[in-house]
Design brief:
The chain has twelve helices and nine strands. The protein has a seven-stranded parallel beta sheet, with helices on both faces. Strands 8-9 form a two-stranded antiparallel ribbon. It starts with a helix and ends with a strand. By secondary structure, the protein is an alpha/beta fold. The protein is globular and about 45 Å long. The chain is 50% helix and 14% strand. The chain has two domains: 32 residues, no CATH class; 261 residues, 3-Layer(aba) Sandwich (Rossmann fold), CATH 3.40.50. α8 runs parallel beside α9.
């Protein structure tokens, strides 16, 4: 029998080959399987790395081809996750609509990206997402938006509920919740008219797992989660995709803003931990946006390796 002859061959001395030889020998006693050769098994074992590299190249090509020429609107694009998203979408060949309050930073980012990716069209918009009228007026100049990344968001302070100021509460809710709604309301009608588009909301683990001294921020991100899920139902009869990406601990300007510019306090948040950075989340955003049009990754939770929950982190001594 061919399989018995195969079992008698001396296969390469590797754990995989040993298991394969044993399995083939015993299965040959009862199941007629196609004949394999020692040479073909050795080839597969030795070529795994090159095959993996080739497959990765095809994967990256397919993702880039889906995003090339797409118009991507990113809010909060002047720093952190938003800036990283701009860089990664530009790398994929997408045209960029970059919105943020800090116009000077946007212009610097635009110049940098244009020097690296001259084929990419980039427009910048000074925009405070809390201002609904300004959002509507600015959106009228966008043209078609294929992908919206609702990234603008912030946290202020780390106080108990009774100590949170009205200003801090309004800023978080107006930016994280109402701002996201304002931009979505401005862009979604066009997506419906074209019956295509993708809205990617940047949420937070805080929207899934509340923690003490974070009541308003956690509540605002829980609202983002609920809004995103509701949009899934509201767009189910369309080709529009709705996604939410929930980062865990990410080292950006987030903690600097939380502690009102106190860099030492902000740095202490990440002490003993290797946190995520903006690029880690941007890669995830681009991956989600780059799926085939019939595939929607509705929700993702992204942690650094040593994080298990919103406030459960292992810190190296």
């Amino acid at each position: 029998m061919n399989l018995l002859r195969l079992a008698q061959h001396r296969l390469p001395t590797t754990p995989v080959a040993a298991r394969l030889q044993s399995r083939l020998f015993f299965s040959s006693l009862s199941l007629p399987l196609p004949c394999l050769t020692t040479r073909s098994i050795r080839f597969s074992h030795n070529s795994s790395s090159s095959s993996s590299s080739d497959e990765q190249g095809v994967f990256n090509h397919n993702m880039s081809s889906r995003l090339r020429g797409k118009n991507v609107l990113i809010t909060g694009a002047s720093s952190g996750i938003g800036e990283a998203c701009a860089r990664h979408f530009a790398q994929a060949g997408s045209n960029l609509l970059l919105a943020a309050r800090r116009k000077d930073r946007l212009e610097k980012l635009k110049a940098d990206l244009e020097s690296q990716h001259p084929q990419v069209k980039i427009s910048t918009f000074e925009l405070d997402v809390r201002n609904r009228a300004k959002v509507q007026a600015t959106a009228a100049t966008f043209g078609d938006v294929d992908v919206l990344v609702n990234n603008a968001g912030l946290v202020i302070g780390l106080e108990r509920l009774e100590d949170i100021t009205e200003e801090a509460m309004d800023t978080m809710i107006d930016t994280n919740v109402k701002g996201l709604v304002h931009v979505t309301q401005a862009v979604l009608p066009g997506m419906r008219a074209r019956d295509k588009g993708h809205i990617i909301n940047i949420g937070s683990v805080a929207g899934q797992q509340a923690y003490g001294n974070g009541s308003i921020y956690c509540g605002s991100k829980a609202a983002v989660a609920s809004i995103t899920k509701a949009l899934l139902f509201e767009t189910i009869d369309t080709a529009i995709r709705i996604s939410e990406i929930n980062p865990g601990m990410v080292e950006t300007e987030f903690s600097v803003v939380r502690f009102k510019g106190d860099k030492s306090k902000a740095d202490s948040v990440y002490k003993g931990v290797h946190p995520l950075d903006g690029n880690d989340i941007a890669e995830t955003v681009v991956f989600v946006a780059g799926r085939p049009e019939h595939v929607n990754i509705a929700e993702m939770l992204v942690f650094p390796t040593n994080q298990a929950a919103a406030t459960t982190v292992y810190r190296k001594p």
